[in-house]
Structure to design on (429 residues):
């Protein structure tokens, strides 16, 4: 029988000072949990390196400060810690090789500390073991770390290694030597990384809601433990033997895909604003007369007006326009074709409103158009979150008039977005 232990952590012992310094009722610190950071994502446990890099960029841009679990523990237990602005804990379970090869370089780029919970019996000295417990992922076996890699990561000072048992068992299953799993993992880690092994992560979260298992974790000399599940909770309500974590799953991205629950930033702040933008038109106008422009020539100026509606939250958005040649979608013409102001307009886009964003396009005298599109992208003010990319037009090139060397004229027309290419665009940012 499992007993759910709810309610606030009670400071042990008789020091009344601990209770006086308990966290305020409205303070929460997200503890994010990743498993695998690699380029393939066959299940929810994987995020790609590109996704992870965007997530870290978003944390940085929005002013979050990753802290180590020890700091959070000291705060929760009322030891006079002052937390930084927007604290967050970054945690990784299971000790996969991709923590070293894929996640670490990105953590180093931002100098973000993280905690890694290691099943020590899966770590080799020269041989790598495969993950055996995510059975549906059998075709995508993930290799575990070597001790040398763990030691190298510990030496960076950025990764704190903590316990995830030895064999990653269900701690509530019959026949499991829980005492040995807890003690041996602590011993293994201390021997290799020379760090205090104070924290524990329940394999698959099993046992985190059992008072009996929590008691064994405490008896083994740990200070606190994290659950494998949960949502953002006020720290005043936190149980240090099952601190709740928020899983970052494969669908959590900084790029808005139309489902607010997939928004990475919502894991940190449930009220994070998400505008939902639909482009209704992209039109080209003569900047002098304001009339529709159906042909352009080199040397012309064209007013490009993007009209869009926001049916989501109010947010400061940047709108950018780029010219993308069909022949080479990775190239952009926006610089050479002199969009003003600098190809980007930024403003508050109110909820339930329609707005127009205007760009002045100075067509180069010797422009060589070919076929290309006008791409509209909406993004946040830090240029890390992409809400929407749409608005396509085709300019079909043909020869200019007689005697106009180097000049070409193009017919402006609408066409539907290419869904395949549109999907690929998201990977560019
Ligand atoms: Zn695990």
């Amino acid at each position: 029988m499992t007993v759910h232990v709810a309610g606030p952590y009670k400071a042990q012992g008789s020091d009344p000072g601990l209770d006086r310094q308990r966290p305020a009722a409205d303070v929460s610190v997200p503890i994010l949990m990743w498993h695998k950071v690699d380029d393939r994502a066959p299940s929810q446990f994987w995020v790609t390196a590109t996704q992870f890099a965007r997530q870290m960029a978003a944390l940085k841009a929005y002013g979050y400060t990753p802290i180590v679990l020890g700091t959070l523990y000291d705060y929760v237990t009322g030891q006079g810690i002052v937390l930084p602005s927007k604290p967050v804990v970054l945690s990784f379970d299971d000790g996969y090789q991709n923590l070293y090869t894929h996640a670490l370089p990105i953590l180093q780029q931002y100098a973000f500390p993280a905690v890694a919970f290691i099943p020590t019996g899966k770590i080799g000295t020269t041989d790598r073991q495969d993950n055996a417990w995510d059975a549906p992922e059998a075709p995508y076996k993930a290799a575990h770390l070597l001790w040398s890699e763990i030691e190298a990561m510990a030496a960076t000072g950025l990764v704190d290694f903590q316990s995830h048992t030895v064999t990653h068992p269900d701690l509530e299953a019959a026949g499991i030597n829980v005492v040995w799993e807890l003690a041996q993992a602590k011993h293994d880690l201390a021997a290799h990384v020379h760090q205090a092994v104070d924290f524990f992560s329940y394999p698959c979260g099993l046992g985190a809601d059992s008072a009996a298992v929590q008691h064994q974790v405490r008896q083994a000399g740990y200070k606190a433990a994290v659950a494998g599940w949960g949502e953002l909770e006020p720290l005043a309500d936190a149980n240090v033997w099952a601190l709740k974590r928020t899983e970052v799953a494969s669908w959590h991205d900084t790029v808005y895909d139309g489902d607010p629950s997939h928004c990475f930033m919502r894991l940190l702040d449930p009220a994070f604003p998400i505008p939902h933008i639909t482009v209704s038109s992209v039109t080209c106008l003569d900047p002098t007369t304001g009339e529709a422009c159906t042909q352009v020539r080199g040397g012309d100026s064209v007013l490009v007006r993007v009209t869009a509606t926001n049916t989501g939250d109010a947010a400061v958005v940047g709108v950018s326009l780029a010219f993308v040649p069909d022949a080479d979608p990775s190239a952009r013409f926006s610089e050479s074709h002199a969009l003003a102001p600098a190809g980007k307009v930024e403003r508050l886009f109110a909820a339930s409103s329609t707005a127009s964003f205007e760009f002045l396009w100075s067509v180069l005298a010797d422009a060589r158009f070919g076929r290309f599109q006008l791409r509209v992208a909406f993004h946040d003010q830090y240029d890390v979150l992409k809400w929407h990319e749409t608005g396509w037009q085709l300019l079909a090139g043909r020869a200019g008039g007689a005697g106009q060397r180097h000049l070409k004229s193009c017919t402006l027309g609408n066409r539907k977005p290419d869904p395949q290419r549109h999907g690929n665009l998201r990977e560019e940012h």
Summary: The chain has two domains: 16-268, 277-428. Confidence is low (pLDDT under 50) at residues 1-20, 399-407, 419-429.
